[in-house]
Amino acid sequence: MKKVYPDAKAALAGLLKDGMLVMAGGFGLCGIPETLILAIRDSGVKNLTVVSNNAGVDGIGLGLLLDTKQIKKMISSYVGENKTFAQQYLAGELEIEFNPQGTLAERIRAGGAGIPAFYTKTGAGTDIAKGKEEREFNGERYVMEKGIVADLAIVHAWKGDTEGNLVYRKTARNFNPMMATAGKVTVAEVENLVQPGELNPDHIITPGVYVKRMIHVPNAPKHIEQRTVRKRVMA
């Protein structure tokens, strides 16, 4: 089965539909599947529910889908860098389901592992737990959280082979690996594409069985979310 497609539009062909749930990998602007996000924007699909740690920034990453109002709901942990996100939420144009970051990560991992729900102490007895089942274990309160399975997961990998085996680099490893397992269909964009057998098996993070389609993005942009520099020390 050929997994490598010529471009993002071809890789997403037949997969996109209005109202679907999409997982988008990355952490901040590190390891975001930007080429695939651009193709989703250009497709015109709308009323999306998007699961992502954050919503990009204005004009970059998922911020592009907010600009075109293609996202109906975000399931996220952190959105503080995106003014468009805040404006749409305050105007009642965007739904938000906030999750503690670790809870969001575990909901995604659980979905990929076939675990429908789990209990966590995080958020128990707070507003986060409203409307959710709570139980007591060993004298402590826990809140039940449900696993998440997406119609489509889009991820970005530093290196991969044509069989779909993926390797992530540094911060990009935060959400991409678990999302790759939690999509009914997973599409990956890969910076360095090699032939089967060229990857060290010990370095593979996502086995190719999870990846259905791929594209090669050799010149993927590297954005900096917050540029911090030291003050120059005058001699």
Tags for this entry?
Glutaconate Coenzyme A-transferase; 6 helices; 25% strand; single chain; 3-stranded antiparallel beta sheet; 2 domains; 11 strands; 235 residues; alpha/beta
Which architecture of the largest domain would the CATH scheme give at its second level?
3-Layer(aba) Sandwich
> Could you say how many structural domains there are in total?
2
> Roughly how much helix do the residues carry, as a percent range?
10-25%
Q: Provide the CATH top-level class of the largest domain.
A: Alpha Beta
State the distance separating the first and last CA atoms: 63 Å
Strand portion, in percent? Answer: 15-25%
Main sheet overview: 8 strands, mixed
How big is the Rg?
A: 19 Å
- The CATH superfamily of the largest domain appears as Glutaconate Coenzyme A-transferase
Would you tell me which CATH topology of the largest domain applies?
Answer: Glutaconate Coenzyme A-transferase
Record field, number of beta strands: 11
Structural class: alpha/beta
**Element-by-element helix/strand order:** HEHEHEHEHEEEEEHEE
Summed up, the helix count is 6
The low-confidence runs, each spanning 5 or more residues with pLDDT under 50, are none
- How would you describe the shape? globular
Average pLDDT reading: 93
